[in-house]
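Quick note —
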Amino acid sequence: MSEIVTSIIERGDLAHLALFLWASAATLFALRALRELGRSTRRLDAFVRELARFNRRYGSD
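Predicted structure written out below.
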């Protein structure tokens, strides 16, 4: 078992594993941020539509 660990350490595969985990976490964070941005855009769009409807109904001509 120690030969396997030594082989992984010598070849630098632990660094690749750490890089992969970091990249995966960063990608998941970015996807979550984009999803939240989409949600906030939809909320803003709904607000603007309601404001336009209010202005059509009660606004001065």
